[in-house]
Amino acid sequence: VQIGENKLRVKLSVHQFKPEDITVKIDNNKLTISGKHEKKSDEGHSYFAQEFTQQYTIPEGIDQDSIISTFSDEGVLLIQGKPKNSGTGEPREIPIDRGNKA
Fold first, then answer.
1. Which GO terms describe its molecular function (predicted)?
2. What is the DSSP track for the chain?
3. Do the Cβ atoms of 98 and 7 come closer than 8 Å?
4. N or C: which end of the chain has fewer CB within 10 A?
5. Contact of 70 with 12, CB cutoff 8 Å
């Protein structure tokens, strides 16, 4: 995690989750990353659940509209933001792109 006045870079190993199990949201200068994975056995006798949430304050110098996220084939989620030029600061959900770089 690298967070500074003009830098935002969060790298998480989430190989046990699929991209559709993870949400990345921005609201009120907060970046929230959460994931939830549930699995039932074929017989229905056992149940496995895994869940996480992490929250970071977005520095004032980061353009919230520039924040992107990428999910690599290796299961690494990378979230990056660029220094501020302009941005609305409105709440939004950030789509997770599938990529090979992390």
1. unfolded protein binding
2. -EEETTEEEEEEE-TTS-GGGEEEEEETTEEEEEEEEEEE-TTSS-EEEEEEEEEEEPPTTB-GGG-EEEEETTSEEEEEEPBPS------EEEPEEEES--
3. no
4. N
5. no
- pLDDT at residue 72, rounded to an integer: 94
38-53 pLDDT per residue, tens: 888 777 778 889 999 9
- Looking at residue 46, its amino acid is S
Q: How far apart (Å, rounded) are the C-alpha atoms in residues 29 and 47?
A: 36
Residue range 55-100, pLDDT digits in tens: 999 988 899 989 999 999 999 999 999 888 655 667 878 888 877 6
For residue 96, give the amino acid letter. I
Is the pLDDT assigned to residue 5 strictly greater than 60?
yes
Nearest to 96, CA basis, from 64, 74, 67, 57: 67
